[in-house]
Structures are given as C-alpha cells and as structure tokens.
Amino acid sequence: GEPAGATDGAEVAHRLLEAGAAVGDRGEVREAPLHVGLGRLPAEGRDEQLRDANLRLRSLLPSLAGVARHDVFSVANAAGELIYTRVAPERFGDSLAAVAPLAEAAQGEAAVALWSRAADLPAQPPLASVLPPHAVYEVVAEPVVFADELHGLVLVGVRIDRDTLDAMRAISGLHVALLGEGADVLATLPPAAREALVAQLREAEELPA
C-alpha cells in the first residue's frame, strides 16, 4: 500500500506552492514560491534570507495539512538547506543533502525510507525527538516542483511504535515484531512468547547476547 505520510507530504508540498505563489482561478500555481524561502538562494545575505524563510514558514504552519499528526516534519530549499524542522523550530541553514530519503527526492520523485539505525540520520540538526536506534520511523520525502524545476523538499514521517504494530495486527491477524539495534524488540506477542522470540534470535545470532 501507499506509505504512511505520502499523501500528506504531497499535500504539504502543494500548500507550500500555493502559499508563496500567484494561484489562478482553477487553483493552478502560476509563479514560483520564492517568498517562502524555497528555490536556490543567492550567496549574498543567505543567512538572513534563510532566517526570514524560517519565520514565514512558521507563520504558515497552522494552514498546512500533515504537520500536527507527524512525528517528523521538516522543509528544505532546493539546495537541501534546512528551512524548518518541527523538533527545533528556530533552527535553519543546516545541510540535509545526505539525509535519506531527501537525496532521492531531490531528483524529482517522492521517496521513502525507514530510519531504524543511528547511521540513518545525523544527530544534528535534530529531525526527530527520539533518534534511532531508540525509535523507528517511516519517512517520506516529497519534492516541491514548479514548472519542472525543483524548489524545495518536504519530509514527513511517523514513529513506528506499539500502537502502530497493534494496528498492523488488527488488519493482518498476525503478530508483528520489530527488531532494533542491540536487543530492542517491540512486538504484539505476549511477554512469554516475546521472551522466547528473543532467545531464539540470540541463538541464531540475529541479536547480541
């Protein structure tokens, strides 16, 4: 099925276009959203422009779908520079070019990634309140494209927790287990069955002792 957050990522990208553009009678975007800080900024006065973009975007958040219900929400400009991250709202300017799946989305297509390891994203800038491997996230990156040109990137994601696994079990009728780095195991199994699973995985060297 469609990844969690994919629809919201596309919706936020469209709202960002609308927020900074001239919109026609039929809702079509006629101009690029430069005044919300997307696009490629000139080198002169870059920090000030990024700061202004951060302030403008924060003022737009109440009208943007998909923000409140996501654990991960960040926006970068076309150069991959951070404009806003929900975890640290006043932070901007950091390079997100190497963060999965933003590098793939920068090629013009939506991309999905699973953050489950410490190596999956940098500690700074903060993009999630609890970093992997202590939490697992499914994230979707959506390009903000106008007239076949990349103007920015939107990153949304949800934490995969016990509620998520319970929902998956309700749909599938199967027990679900999530393995993290170390000996972290999150599962819908009762305690005895979970302990048996951990023992079996350790015996098979899938988990450290």
Share of residues in strands: 15-25%
> Low-confidence spans: pLDDT under 50, at least 5 residues?
1-7, 20-39
Q: What sequence of helices (H) and strands (E) makes up the elements?
A: HHEEHEEEHEEH
Whole-number radius of gyration? 19 Å
Major sheet details = 5 strands, antiparallel
Strand order of the largest sheet: 2-1-5-4-3
Average pLDDT confidence is 75
Q: How does the overall form come out from the CA principal axes?
A: elongated
Please give the count of helices.
5
Kindly report how far apart the N and C termini lie. Answer: 35 Å
Helix and strand content put the structural class at alpha+beta
Helix content: 25-40%
Give a short overview.
This protein is of the alpha+beta class. The protein contains 5 helices and 7 strands; from the N terminus they run H-H-E-E-H-E-E-E-H-E-E-H.
Structural write-up:
It contains five helices and seven strands. It starts with 5 loop residues before the first helix and ends in a 6-residue tail after the last helix. It has helices at residues 6-19, 46-60, 102-105, 162-172, 191-203, and strands at 72-77, 82-85, 111-115, 137-146, 149-159, 177-179, 185-187. Strand 1 (72-77) and strand 2 form a beta hairpin. The radius of gyration is 19 Å and the shape is elongated. Helix content is 27%, strand content 20%. By secondary structure, the protein is of the alpha+beta class. The model is unreliable at 1-7 and 20-39 (pLDDT under 50). The chain has a five-stranded antiparallel sheet. A two-stranded antiparallel sheet has the order 6-7.
